[in-house]
């Protein structure tokens, strides 16, 4: 990859360009959940079976992240970043024009293809275009929209649904996307690899097939209500693909993700811990707006504003993360925090129509703080022990696992909610189904604490916490 030489104007504009792309992605990821009940009514679908709209996006992003670096090296960062914004914007338009559930899901896939390339390619350009002395400052600036998006997304989504229509949660991406396209064409450096890099296509197919098949199997238990024999078959085939990938990866040069990454104990524990601990975190943005609107009768705007404490709590705890990790260490923080997070998620089973609003907001704020601490500690412990040679591949695998675990979290929540909901159930029975789902999701999250017991209790912190998810 050639090193970019930036003029003064491009050096000023480029961080804004990547930050806007990050903002579009994080806003879209949080604005949608509040609108799901309204979308279900308009598309004549059950609001408790709308998780496919969320899963389609997350799974596509997870699937394509491993290819993003190779695609940028092969075709140039300017062309790929520009194309990513175009696809994301086009997907947003198609989502707004959708008249059926299946059409909406396919439009979300188009949107996700663009989303899977925007942030990884943007980060790659920043890494290559700025000296290391400037890298942390620029990345900190770019990470800020990642905190603002979840803060305003649910509220904006609720207000748009209540006072306009759900279509506007996608239409607002169009002017931002147009500005991004113009800026990308003018200011994005065109970096390419000087040599043709080999891509592990067969490994990509095996790894991607495993992710898709296992997720569809979980989805089949919920929204699609597949026969159990078909679900079992999908799980077996998906697991076989995953086993075949790892067996093959150990015997070829430059696999998609090398098994040697797992020789670093903290990385292995961090990856598996991320996979299981994030099941609850991934399910929350999907379950909470549904609970508030479907079971408790909140309006979309009320439900959106109720989600604000989650983001505020996350922002409040960020400055305290490093001192706490320095003082207590990864092992204590992650074991205690995981158990606390699972307990807080399970305790949402106590929420009903009689719960005081102040108590609900305090509960969600505490979940936001604990969740943020969990993300920071897990991200850092996963990458902190890797060598420079393995850092890029390890970071890419972590990004895949983050998206995959959130997708599996939504799929699991949908399957549990569907299993606990009896057709034609009254309001009290629907609320009971939500309560049982929160209990199960919380218990699943707490199991990840057993993985963090495997961390070295004496491991010192050798790098600052990694906030970006």
Automatic annotation (TrEMBL):
GO annotations of cellular component type: plasma membrane
Record's subcellular location: Cell membrane
InterPro entries: EmrB-like, MFS, MFS_dom, MFS_trans_sf
Pfam families with a match to the protein in the record: MFS_1
Primary location class: membrane
Recorded GO MF terms: transmembrane transporter activity
Every Major facilitator superfamily (MFS) profile domain range: 14-460
Entry-linked SUPFAM superfamilies: MFS general substrate transporter
Keyword Cell membrane set for record: yes
Membrane-related topology note: Multi-pass membrane protein
Keywords: Cell membrane, Membrane, Transmembrane, Transmembrane helix, Transport
Domain of life (superkingdom): Bacteria
TM stretches of this protein: 12-32, 52-72, 79-99, 105-126, 138-160, 166-187, 199-218, 230-247, 267-288, 300-321, 333-351, 357-385, 397-421, 433-453
Protein name, entry field: MFS transporter
Organism: Stutzerimonas zhaodongensis
Lineage: Bacteria, Pseudomonadati, Pseudomonadota, Gammaproteobacteria, Pseudomonadales
């Amino acid at each position: 990859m050639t090193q970019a030489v930036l003029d003064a104007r491009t050096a000023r504009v480029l961080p804004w360009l990547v930050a806007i792309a990050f903002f579009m992605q994080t806003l879209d990821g949080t604005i949608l959940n509040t609108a799901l009940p309204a979308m279900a009514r308009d598309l004549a679908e059950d609001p408790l079976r709308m998780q496919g709209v969320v899963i389609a996006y997350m799974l596509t992003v997870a699937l394509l992240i491993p290819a993003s670096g190779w695609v940028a090296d092969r075709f140039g960062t300017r062309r790929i970043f520009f194309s990513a914004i175009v696809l994301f914007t086009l997907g947003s338009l198609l989502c707004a024009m959708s008249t059926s559930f299946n059409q909406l899901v396919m439009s979300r896939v188009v949107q996700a293809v663009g989303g899977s390339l925007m942030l990884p390619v943007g980060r790659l350009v920043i890494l290559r275009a700025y000296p290391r002395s400037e890298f942390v400052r620029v990345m900190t600036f770019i990470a800020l929209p990642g905190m603002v998006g979840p803060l305003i997304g649910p509220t904006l989504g609720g207000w748009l649904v209540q006072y306009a229509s759900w279509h506007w949660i996608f239409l607002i991406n169009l002017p931002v996307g147009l500005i991004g396209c113009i800026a990308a064409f003018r200011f994005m450096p065109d970096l390419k690899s000087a040599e043709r890099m080999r891509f592990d296509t067969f490994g990509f197919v095996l790894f991607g097939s495993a992710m898709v098949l296992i997720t569809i199997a979980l989805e089949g238990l919920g929204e699609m209500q597949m026969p159990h024999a078909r679900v079992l078959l999908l799980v077996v085939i998906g697991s076989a693909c995953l086993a075949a990938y790892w067996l093959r990866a150990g015997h070829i040069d430059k696999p998609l993700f090398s098994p040697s990454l797992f020789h670093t104990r903290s990385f292995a524990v961090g990856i598996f811990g991320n996979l299981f601990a994030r099941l609850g975190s991934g399910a929350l943005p999907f379950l909470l707006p549904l609970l508030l609107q479907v079971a408790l009768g909140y309006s979309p705007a009320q439900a959106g504003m109720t989600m604000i404490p989650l983001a505020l709590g996350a922002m409040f705890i960020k400055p305290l993360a490093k001192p706490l990790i320095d003082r207590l260490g990864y092992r204590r923080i992650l074991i205690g925090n995981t158990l606390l997070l699972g307990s807080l998620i399970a305790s949402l089973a106590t929420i009903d129509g009689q719960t005081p609003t102040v108590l609900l907001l305090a509960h969600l704020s505490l979940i936001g703080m604990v969740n943020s601490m969990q993300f920071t500690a897990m991200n850092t412990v996963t990458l902190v022990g890797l060598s420079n040679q393995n850092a890029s591949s390890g970071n890419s695998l972590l990004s895949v696992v983050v998206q995959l675990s959130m997708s599996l979290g939504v799929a699991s929540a949908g399957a549990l909610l569907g299993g606990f909901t009896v057709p034609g159930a009254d309001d009290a029975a629907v609320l009971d189904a939500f309560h049982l789902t929160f209990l199960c999701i919380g218990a699943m999250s707490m199991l990840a604490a057993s993985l963090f017991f495997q961390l070295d209790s004496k491991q010192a912190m050798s790098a600052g916490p990694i906030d970006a998810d």
